[in-house]
Amino acid sequence: MISEREALQLLQKYGVPKQVVEHSRAVSERAVEVAKSINARGKAKVDVEKVRITGLLHDIGKAKTLIENGEKEGANKRHEDEGAIILEAEALGDIARMVSKHGFYFLTRRSPRLTIEEKVLVYADATINGDKGCSLDERLARLMEIYSAGGTKEDLVLAETIRKNFYKVNELEKEIKGLMA
Predict the structure, then answer these.
(1) Tens digits of per-residue pLDDT, 86-110?
(2) What's the number of domains the chain is made of?
């Protein structure tokens, strides 16, 4: 496992914008908080360091997708996939697999089998908007704003897919909260 310092160096190496780094720090902190809470209850065992580092690196692919698609991420070029490619190239395959599964689009389009660390990462990302905590309803509203504003057919299809299937994110939240109770 790489260190937090090394993870931050990777974000810099791949040109991840400051606001994305701040979001990633907040996701990492939230993931650690959730993991520690779950571990303290003894209902599951979460690898705290894995969620800390993956939280930092989960949006490493955004630099490329933002450059290629302007200020927003296009439906055809998923930052989760780009991040996984980058992390595989950096010999971080375990983290790459988690990053490839963290997005709402992945969760809402498929019925994935996620490890406890992957669930914690998705939940942490879902409850951080920018670098501040938020509810799932607030996060969904922000996603709808982003993708509906895109105007392309692909963005509108993505927005509708996420909206119709967001109940899966709500189910994940119930599971995580149950493990923390």
Answers:
(1) 999 999 999 999 999 987 767 766 6
(2) 1
